[in-house]
Design goal:
2 helices, mainly beta, 9-stranded antiparallel β-sheet, 6-stranded antiparallel β-sheet, 11% helix
């Protein structure tokens, strides 16, 4: 049996377990911050499963997930699409910065996928708002069967220029329970699934200008066993990007559904492609 059918069987069993034991595979997420935008699946949550509240002490965090991405393809900025399938991108509102301004945030990479064959990944990129061009890569994480997954080993051509703390992060192994993974929550395909825990990213913006941040998560090779990224404490010069008291906007996708029909549909699309 080839690895793709085997993976389909494992994903189907995981989805069946969700249906059998009555745990909903649908997540009603809180809205993303005012002025932020989403392509695919994004939202805000409090402590959930393996993802605790961040070290900031904030009562919630933002997330981006490949689950329920509905065919949107997310690719690391500057990278040519190769084996990326579906994914999601969360974009902040535009902000101004002077030379020497500190940019900080926390992230937590979570994946139910495993092995080097299905190397799902996530990233955080600073963009120049005037030209919509990448300015600095601030984080990468990628599924690996062993060793450090942050920064990503398989994306070495794209160096992270931010200071990460810890600087190198292995996976905390096991099928991660986290609602944004939809039907993949609690599931694990092969060695490499798990989560990183909260890691900080710090960067000093060298040039004055207008910028925005992009956070992305993508499935690699197939769209089975999902991956996501939790983000919190995004500050510019110590000030949150979204103004205090801002009214939240609805996220682009508020429902995550990854049951058996969605999995079977994904396989049918591959077989007929």
């Amino acid at each position: 049996m080839s690895i793709l059918p085997a993976k389909f069987v494992a994903s189907s069993l995981a989805a069946l377990a969700v249906l059998t034991f009555g745990t909903s595979a649908t997540l009603l997420a809180d809205p993303i911050p005012s002025g932020w935008s989403c392509s695919g699946t994004c939202g805000s949550l409090g402590a959930n499963g393996v993802v605790t509240l961040s070290p900031t002490g904030n009562p919630s965090y933002q997330f981006v997930s490949t689950a329920g991405a509905n065919g949107f393809t997310a690719v690391l900025p500057g990278k040519t699409q190769t084996s990326e399938t579906d994914g999601s991108v969360l974009t902040t509102s535009t902000f101004s910065a002077t030379s020497g301004t500190a940019l900080n945030f926390f992230f937590n990479f979570v994946t139910s996928d495993g092995s080097s064959t299905f190397a799902d990944y996530a990233w955080a990129e600073l963009f120049n708002a005037g030209t919509n061009t990448p300015a600095a890569l601030l984080f990468t994480g990628q599924t690996e069967p062993s060793g450090s997954i942050v920064p990503a080993q398989g994306l070495s051509a794209f160096p992270v220029v931010a200071t990460l703390n810890p600087s190198s992060v292995p996976i905390i192994p096991g099928g991660p329970t986290w609602s944004p993974l939809g039907g993949s929550s609690g599931a694990c395909f092969d060695v490499g699934c798990g989560y990183t825990g909260w890691v900080s990213s710090s960067y000093t913006i060298p040039t004055a200008g207008n910028y925005y941040l992009e956070f992305g998560a993508t499935n690699w090779v197939d769209d089975l066993f999902d991956t996501g990224l939790a983000i919190d404490g995004v500050t510019v010069g110590g000030v949150p990007i979204n103004p205090p008291g801002a009214v939240p906007e609805p996220s682009s996708i508020a429902l995550l559904g990854t049951g058996l029909l969605a999995v079977a549909g994904a396989v049918r699309r591959r077989l007929t492609a």
